[in-house]
């Protein structure tokens, strides 16, 4: 018998809370304070008024997680979204019959790779295998690159997505914030038309992505798998005719994505009072991040990101797992969306948590380590000759960091911003009882999963 079909409301509500942690970390009781702690606290307070400015909320603190006013967060909606995000049963529109039911949103945004892809591009339909953290996923023998659902740019993370008004490297998804005034570029009959629904970026991308990535939802599927009950709990105020749709599926997924917060990283623990959470070298690196290195000018707030777009001269997709041509619109980043030449080669400032989970950085994945990208920004010598010197951001100038400072800054970004417990955001199982994030034969072997 399918347990999900027979859930009682009290049990359901308790289950919805597992996305967060109610335990008190003993490290938070640590009161040993060093000179580095005092200096860093003073530095951050002077910059932003309070350490609270940088603190990520708990994942079950739904009132304090940034939300789209048109998609308020509820525990019921988040739980439904968590399941749908990982649900391989939604993969119904694969090009070939054999690949139906084998991929999910989590195929390209999974916990093992910090909610991005274990390879540069990410492969949905047409992919096979997983490995340990998604690094072994590749094109199946029956698919050509043209057939597969594969991206011409590095798959961005959805970790800390609650702190973005627009989504993707070019920011094309989202009807608010930086996209106000871009309505003429919400091209009919393309995914960008989803902006006309009026949602913020997280919601818009989640809704559009279901069609883009060849997924669908039917009432028959929801009834057979037990999801209907969960949709009823998540969207009780919607008429039934509007309750079981791709739009509500996307809204639930977006609600879940907003709770994906790296709030158990060492820097977050330090901000909350645990002075031993970071090493002395990491604290020195943090002082550089918020000081001499000027990283904070672009990477600020709880997610250490921003809504700005900059041209830093980084290269496009290098040595892709699936050989595809990078189109001109993708190469031009923000300009490829806005059609404004002044936006050409500008890409959105990414969040900085859990970068250690992958080995490629920049929109094209052209750099191979956190230290390498810090060295790149320290030298400020462009990688791509498509970007003229005039188009480069004013902030792209030498930082004059010495070798020790580069190492300290690397230690902060690599270790202090690493949340080692992202597994808490994965479901223990799906209503369909299918494997996730992938359910193709090779992935099942890699994941030791039978269904």
Brief summary of the model shown:
The protein is mostly helical and 451 residues long. It is built from 15 helices and four strands.
Could you explain how this protein is built, in words?
With 451 residues, the protein is mostly helical. The protein has helices spanning 9-16, 35-48, 75-86, 201-212, 219-225, 227-234, 240-243, 246-258, 266-271, 280-289, 328-331, 334-338, 370-379, 403-416, 441-447; strands at residues 127-128, 138-139, 309-310, 347-348. It folds into two domains: 29-58 and 262-416, Orthogonal Bundle (Cytochrome Bc1 Complex, Chain D, domain 2); 75-261 and 422-447, Orthogonal Bundle (Cytochrome Bc1 Complex, Chain D, domain 2), CATH 1.10.760.10. The protein is globular, with a radius of gyration of 22 Å. The chain starts with 8 loop residues before the first helix and ends with a helix.
Question: Can you tag this structure with a few keywords?
Answer:
about 450 residues, mainly alpha, Cytochrome Bc1 Complex, Chain D, domain 2, 2 domains, 4 strands, globular, disordered N terminus
Mean pLDDT: 93
What is the CATH-assigned architecture of the largest domain?
Answer: Orthogonal Bundle
- Counting copies of identical and different chains, the oligomeric state is single chain
Number of strands: 4
- The total count of helices amounts to 15
Cα end-to-end separation: 15 Å
